[in-house]
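Q: What changes when FE2/S2 (inorganic) cluster is included in the input?
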Amino acid sequence: MSSRCVNADKTPEAFFVWLRDRFPEAGGFIDVSAPPEDSNIGPLDNADANGTIHGICGDTMEIWLKIENGVVTDARYATNGCFSSRACGAAATYLAKGERIIDALGISPRDVMNLLELIPGVDIHCSILAISTLYRAIAEYILKGNISVEMK
Ligand code: FES
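A: The predicted holo structure follows.
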């Protein structure tokens, strides 16, 4: 297994640069009260994996993954939840992109919260919903028989 630290290069600064790229009209300022509407919003055509979870808060998250040679090459989400859940979906899919699926399973709700420094701690359940949905999508991929050398 790789000794690479999962998401080591995906810092809060890198995440907000990524968000800024999607809001060029914002002139470098991101209004955290506005949802990152086009930040990895799904669905994703021809997805290799898909997961949906209905959270205990009543909100639903869905995540689609494109996986090539064991690496998540694209990830999108959709939710009917609050701003925090949308931000967590954007962060979870941002973190998953570029990771081997075995490393994507190492992404945690804490990683999402670390990226979203302005999200209130009480909204940690939103990050749990996003990451649980990511895990479900990966589980679906594996359970469909896509277990191969990339898992080692
Ligand atoms: Fe439901 Fe945030 S309140 S996911």
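Observations recorded in class: The mean pLDDT is 84.
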